[in-house]
Every structure is written in structure tokens, then in C-alpha cells.
Design goal:
This protein is mostly beta strands. It has helices spanning 12-18, 52-55, 136-142, 284-290; strands at 58-60, 68-70, 81-86, 98-107, 113-116, 125-128, 150-155, 177-187, 200-201, 210-213, 219-222, 233-239, 251-259, 265-268, 275-277, 298-303, 325-333. Strands 9, 12, 13, 14, 15, 16 and 17 form a 7-stranded antiparallel sheet that branches. Strands 3, 4, 5, 6, 7 and 8 form a 6-stranded antiparallel sheet that branches. A two-stranded antiparallel sheet has the order 1-2.
């Protein structure tokens, strides 16, 4: 399981789809008893065909808005089926790529709706296309799918929540699932140009740490010897022209975190994989820094302790309760 000191918690939604009751991270394994068949190599994909069950799902409502679905229940199938309702023209999702999706979930036994990201108080999901990290049936649904597509997915219990079920959603161990998914932007981890900010460089601001990017986007940060700002300070280094990151919605980013006083880097996604940000999953100042920014942008933020790890600090990362943090963040998708 990947661990980032920047992570504090994860949303209930991410826990729900990881299938793990009480698990601390959305990068946890699927629920007990869920079957994850061997998947394609990273950077490739295996297409999921349609079938009688997925083709029988009747969906109403526009793509990009909450769907209504009717189907003959109980759904009876042995392996996940996917029917493409409308095909997008975005990048194709391979194993290991990241994507953002909205969905409405139904109990395949009763036919009842049990969850929707479109409901008030919910949020879209940022996920990794990896059946060892998310429900195998959901991953099969989006694998080989173009960004911008809407699909209907029928999932057997064995590729859903498995023997554990999901009591919070009223899903028993034997219940199949039905998803209607709106698949958004895909970030390909094999395309270097998609893994760094591509916005226009902005004027240098005096007193702000300076950043020099390597060819692959990895930043080198020079922090002034002066005292850090007392308040949260966000500076746009590159301005992208993509979608705006709305408050309470997920994003996919690259980041590097340093401590102002020691100038030490304590964590970064560079050299690993981009970070799928779910609302509430990061320190307060990190989320504040990307809210309102545009995809393709690079920002640098100075975060005072009150909006970082507070008085307790983060001993594992060498952060004290008085340390100001500096993050360089490349916004890749939202």
C-alpha cells in the first residue's frame, strides 16, 4: 500500500469502492473474497465485452448527469460485462493509468439505487486502473475505455465486494452490482507529456521559493533563507488552460513537499506515480492550493502549521509542529 505523508484521510466514497471496511487508504486491496483475475501488463489493457446482462440495462438521463437505470433483477452473470452507451474521444485507459469518474451504483439483486457521486455531498472518484487497488469489476468496466465515455457495467458479486459485501450500502455477499459510469479525463502514466504541467510560465514573484523543472518535470526548489510567510501563500508558476479544479472535487496531481526551515524534501510523487487526490484526503493547505486552479497549471504553496499537520507535526516525515511546508504541485486532471 502506498503511503504519502501528505495524506491524512480518505473519503467514504474511496473506501466504499476499495471494498475494505475500515481500511485507511483507497489504495487498499478489494474486499475479502473479491476475485481479481490476472490483468494486463501496465501500459496495456484487456477489453471487457458486452453481454446479455449489460445490454439489458436501460439508462435514461444525459451523460455527465445522474443516471436512472432499469434492468431485470436479479442480475445473473459470472464475469463482468460492459456496454458502451456513448463513446468519448479522450485517451484510452490502460492498466496503471489514472482517471476521474462519476457513477451511479445499483444493487443487482433488488434493482435499488444505493449510491451516486452526483448526489449532494458526494464527489467524483479519482482512481487508478488497477484491480489490486479497486473493485475488479469497476476496473474491468473502465479498462480499455476512452475518456469521455458513458458505460453500463454489470458485475458479479465475486468481482464486486465479494464475501464481505458492503453493509453500509446494503450489499450482501451474493449481490451483483450495476454501475452507470461517466468516465472523465484519463492520465496515461506512459506518456511523459501527460505527467507534468504544460501551462504558460508566469512572472517570478519576489520572496517566493524558486523552481527549476527537469525535462521530465521533476522540480528542484530553492527556498529563501528568510522567515516563511505567516499565512497560506499560493503562487501560480505555470498557468494551464484546462478545467478548473472545483472545491470538493477530485484531481490528479504530481507533487513535491519540502520543509521551509530545513529545506529538506520529505515526500514526492515524482519517480513513483501521480497522486489521485480525493476531497479530504490531504492536509488543508494542499487542497486549498489547488482549488480554483486550472488543469495544466503548476503552483507553489507555503503552508503554515495550522493548515498543515498542526501542533503535532508528522514525526515520520521529520516535520515538527512549527514547520512551514512548501509544495510544488502540477495539476494533471480534474
Amino acid at each position: 500500500m502506498r503511503k504519502f505523508p501528505v495524506i491524512l484521510a480518505v473519503s467514504a466514497l474511496a473506501l466504499t469502492l476499495a471494498g475494505c471496511s475500515g481500511s485507511p487508504s483507497p489504495s487498499s486491496t478489494p474486499g475479502a473474497g473479491a476475485t481479481s483475475a490476472p490483468q494486463a501488463e501496465a501500459g496495456s489493457c484487456t477489453d471487457t465485452p458486452s453481454g446479455v446482462a449489460s445490454d439489458s440495462i436501460s439508462v435514461t438521463g444525459d451523460a455527465g448527469a445522474k443516471a436512472e437505470a432499469t434492468f431485470d433483477s436479479p442480475v445473473d452473470l459470472d464475469t463482468t460485462q460492459r456496454s458502451v452507451l456513448s463513446e468519448g474521444d479522450g485517451s484510452k485507459a490502460n492498466v496503471g493509468d489514472l482517471g476521474i469518474l462519476n457513477f451511479t451504483l445499483f444493487n443487482g439483486t433488488s434493482g435499488d439505487e444505493v449510491f451516486s457521486t452526483y448526489d449532494e455531498g458526494s464527489a467524483a472518484l479519482s482512481m487508478v486502473v488497477d484491480a489490486t487497488q479497486f473493485l475488479p469489476g469497476l476496473v474491468k468496466g473502465v479498462e480499455c475505455l476512452n475518456g469521455g465515455s458513458r458505460i453500463a457495467v454489470a458485475v458479479p458479486a465475486s468481482e464486486g465486494f465479494g464475501e464481505a459485501g458492503n453493509s453500509s450500502l446494503g450489499i450482501a455477499a451474493t449481490d451483483p452490482l450495476v454501475f452507470v459510469v461517466d468516465f472523465g479525463q484519463v492520465v496515461s502514466v506512459t506518456d511523459p507529456d501527460q505527467l507534468k504541467a504544460n501551462g504558460a510560465a508566469q512572472p517570478v514573484v519576489d520572496g517566493v521559493p524558486t523552481v527549476v523543472d527537469a525535462e521530465d518535470g521533476t522540480p528542484t526548489v530553492t527556498i529563501p533563507d528568510a522567515a516563511p510567510p505567516a499565512d497560506l501563500t499560493v503562487t501560480v508558476l505555470k498557468k494551464g488552460d484546462g478545467k478548473v479544479v472545483e472545491s470538493g472535487q477530485p484531481s490528479i496531481v504530481q507533487y513535491q513537499g519540502s520543509i521551509w526551515g530545513s529545506k529538506a524534501v520529505f515526500d514526492q510523487s515524482w519517480g513513483k506515480t501521480p497522486f489521485a487526490v480525493q476531497p479530504g484526503s490531504t492536509v488543508q493547505g494542499f487542497e486549498a492550493a489547488i482549488t480554483g486552479q486550472t488543469v495544466g497549471s503548476q503552483v507553489i504553496v507555503s503552508i503554515p502549521p495550522a493548515q498543515g499537520y498542526g501542533d503535532q507535526g508528522q514525526a515520520q516525515a521529520g516535520i515538527s509542529g512549527t514547520d512551514t511546508l512548501v509544495f510544488v504541485i502540477d495539476i494533471l486532471a480534474a
